[in-house]
Write a structure and sequence with these properties.
Length: 72
């Protein structure tokens, strides 16, 4: 797989996680668990955990008392 392909795939997963958190929050007034995100986007929990950690590091999401919140 080309370098560009990996970066595109990474960005796609980030967007899916972000969208899942936002949509779930709108519907449930709380953020989804790692397991719920994993089920929603059909990737392993370990992958979601790794991406969430990356997204926190990059300031894309933050963990609050209500769960994960995205930066718009």
């Amino acid at each position: 797989m080309s370098r560009k392909g990996k970066n595109e795939m990474k960005q796609e997963i980030i967007e899916k996680i972000k969208s899942s958190i936002e949509n779930y929050f709108i519907e449930e007034d709380m953020s989804p668990s790692i397991r719920e995100i994993s089920t929603m986007i059909d990737v392993p929990k370990s992958t979601v955990q790794r991406y969430i950690a990356y997204m926190e590091n990059e300031g894309i999401v933050t963990k609050t008392e209500r769960g994960y919140e995205t930066k718009k």
